[in-house]
Write a structure and sequence with these properties.
The chain is of the alpha/beta class and 241 residues long. It has one domain: Alpha-Beta Barrel (TIM Barrel), CATH 3.20.20. Helix content is 40%, strand content 17%. β3, α3 and β4 form a beta-alpha-beta unit. α5 crosses α7 and α7 packs parallel to α8. The termini are close together. It binds phosphoenolpyruvate (PEP).
Length: 241
């Protein structure tokens, strides 16, 4: 049986005080079974996070290049040096704000795999694509084009753009249907791939996703910033597995 993965994406939404209080609160919590927990902090705080028990570290992004004159970029090697196990690539905020294309995301993911880490490739349709009935075809194309040249050491995160940070999560039925489609698209070339759901996951709705078929875990933004809510989400996934 696949162990579900719950990953917190802290984006640029936390500061040093927030990291310190998260760690203090998290360390007072019971260790969880039946769930793998990972956190993607901002890069400057990675070194502070390496001692958190039973929590894997993740990068929020990686450069397409391994070394060189790339001001502001962070290489996969740098993330690996700080014991990251996962690296998020292709988050919709990067696709939108930095016009990252599928080909570039595949290159980032290849850099991540070359260093022995697991890329978490994010995909998801906009509200207009869903309204036009194009969501499944759009996401399938994103998945195929963002995974060129990758091995099966890979996680996909389905994050509909309209659900991220909006308070309006996709229904578990929508998530299950899309996850099934994503898995089918990759089955022949890569085998069984874990697919996480992300987009307005909260303490209130997390249990419905952990029971949904084809949902192998969660990618959590806002609700991962506080240790109490993130722990409750992780516990609900672990206890139901
Ligand atoms: C995200 O940005 O990856 C995310 C899922 O955010 P939120 O949970 O806040 O919608």
């Amino acid at each position: 049986m696949i162990t579900p993965l719950v990953m917190g994406n802290w984006k640029m939404a936390i500061d040093l005080d927030g990291v310190v209080s998260f760690k203090a609160m998290w360390s007072s919590k019971r260790l969880l079974k039946g769930v793998e927990v990972a956190i993607a902090p901002p890069v400057p705080y990675l070194a502070l996070m390496t001692d958190l028990p039973n929590v894997s570290l993740a990068g929020q992004d990686a450069s397409t290049q391994s070394i060189g004159a790339r001001t502001g970029d962070v290489s996969a090697k740098m993330l690996s040096d700080f014991t990251c196990r996962y690296v998020i690539v292709g988050h919709s905020e990067r696709r939108q704000n930095y016009a990252e294309a599928n080909e570039q995301i595949a290159e980032k993911a290849r850099q991540v795999q070359a260093l022995g880490m697991t890329p978490v490739v994010c995909v998801g349709e906009s509200a207009s694509e869903r309204e036009a009935g194009l969501a499944e075809d759009f996401v399938t194309r994103q998945v195929i084009d963002s995974c060129v040249g990758l091995t099966s050491d890979l996680v996909i995160a389905y994050e509909p753009v309209w659900a991220i940070g909006s308070g309006e999560a996709a229904s578990p039925e929508i998530a299950s249907a899309m996850h099934g489609r994503i898995k089918a698209a990759l089955a022949e070339s890569l085998g069984d791939i874990r697919v996480l759901y992300g987009g307005s996951v909260s303490v209130t709705n997390c249990a419905s996703f952990s029971k949904a078929p084809e949902v192998d875990g969660l990618l959590v933004g806002g609700a991962s910033l506080e240790a109490e809510s993130f722990w409750q989400i992780c516990a609900s996934v672990g206890e139901s597995s």
